[in-house]
Amino acid sequence: MKFFVDTADVDAIRELNDLGMVDGVTTNPSIIAKSGRNIEEVTREICEMVAGPVSAEVVANDAEGMITEGRHLAKIASNITIKVPLTWDGLKACKVLSGEGHKLNVTLCFSAAQAILAAKAGATFISPFIGRLDDINLDGMELIAQIREIYDNYDFKTEILAASIRSVNHITDAARIGADVITAPPAIIKAMASHVLTDKGLAQFNADWAKTGQKIV
Ligand code: E4P
Which residues are the active-site ones (predicted)? Predict the structure, then answer.
């Protein structure tokens, strides 16, 4: 399973990248806005730090505009993945840009039907949004399972990039289903290391060790 980090916070990306835990990065217009930085400048900085795919999202709503923006974003670095929304125009842009050899991440996917179309249009990644489905009392993880089943039935090469991850359980559940990639905020990736019994066990070891009066070095 590949780990993408869902942020434009370069310090947070660097910390995880130094541990070998970053296989790629995803951004979107909201994430860029939150960073307060210029999209090209921050995306270039991320691309220089991370070897894997870095998703940069178009903001035009029409296919022609998306294609123009996508070509422009792709010039930032060789590891750019162009991110387009799962609309009819987004699928048209995906078809054209993937045909030119670019990597495409088709985002804002909320149904298996949408995921089929993205695969047919040549998407490198499909991004089903788990958390936003859960937010409206639908089952985000069930969507991951449906897409996995369909893609396997037909040997579609598009990778399932489980997105809108809000908890550690989202990551482990997506991994069990067989999502190819997860993208999550840095805090959730770091939270994977925490367990109450680890903390409790360590406190006990520290207390017992102090009683021995020994030092290892
Ligand atoms: C994925 O590519 C998106 O940037 C992201 O996962 C959306 O997450 P959110 O629903 O928490 O905003």
Answer: 83
Residue 168 burial by Cβ neighbours in a 10 Å radius (0-12, 13-18, 19+): middle
State the catalytic residue, choosing from 75, 83, 92, 157.
83
Pocket perturbation via mutation, ligand 1, pick of 2, 3, 4, 6 by most ligand atoms within 8 A of CB: 6
Q: What is the pLDDT of residues 120-141, one digit of tens each?
A: 999 999 999 999 999 999 999 9
How is domain 2-212 classified at the CATH fold level? TIM Barrel (3.20.20)
4-28 tens-digit pLDDT: 999 999 999 999 999 999 999 999 9
Predicted TM-score (pTM) of the model is: 0.97
Separation between Cα atoms, residue 164 and residue 144, nearest integer Å:
12
User: For ligand 1, atom 5, which residue shows the shortest CA distance?
Assistant: 164
